[in-house]
Amino acid sequence: MTLAHHVPRLHAPDLEAALELLRQKGLRVSASRRLVLEALYADRRPRTAEQLANGTDVASVYRNLDTLEELGLVRHVHLGHGPGLYSIDEYEFVSCDGCGAYEAIEPQRLDEARAAIHRALGYHARFTHFPIVGLCEYCHAHS
């Protein structure tokens, strides 16, 4: 079994590029797969499978998300105690344990934190699958 968060990221800047990548990889562009990709490209915020399903078969959405993640087109992230969220964009995240707020961060903004973790612990940190968790300014001030 491949761990999808270790699969190299495929670059598809828009829906048509993503559909073409599917065809190049020998995968069918089924109606349900197309709907999932359309939803991800229409609103690029990380979203749950249920939000992406929008009244359609959630099991089919999960199967398609798994396939798209194994391919490298989609990533999922766990932000706090809620369900996994799926996105086509490569971000890293910070999440508030108090209020549940989260922020998508351009990866280079966390390079200094990654370097400090590497120096102290010898690990090459990533915050794409699990975020940096703490308290936002508001929750910290009111705790």
Secondary-structure topology with pairs:
Blueprint (H helix, E strand, L loop, with lengths): L14 H10 L6 H12 L6 H5 L4 H14 L3 E4 L5 E4 L4 E5 L5 E4 L5 H11 L10 E3 L2 H5 L2
Parallel strand pairs: 3-5
Antiparallel strand pairs: 1-2, 3-4
Report on the architecture of this protein.
The chain has 143 residues and is α+β, with helices and mostly antiparallel strands. It folds into 2 domains: 11-74, Winged helix-like DNA-binding domain superfamily/Winged helix DNA-binding domain (Arc Repressor Mutant, subunit A, Orthogonal Bundle); 92-141, Dna Ligase, domain 1 (2-Layer Sandwich). The chain has helices at 15-24, 31-42, 49-53, 58-71, 111-121, 137-141, and strands spanning 75-78, 84-87, 92-96, 102-105, 132-134. The strands form 2 sheets. The chain has a 3-stranded mixed sheet with strand order 4-3-5, with no helix packed on it. A hairpin with a 5-residue loop joins strand 3 and strand 4. The N and C termini lie far apart (43 Å). Belongs to the Fur family.
Attribute tags:
143 residues; alpha+beta; Arc Repressor Mutant, subunit A; Dna Ligase, domain 1; 2 domains; three-stranded mixed sheet; two-stranded antiparallel ribbon; WH-like_DNA-bd_sf; transcription cis-regulatory region binding; transcription regulation; DNA-binding; repressor
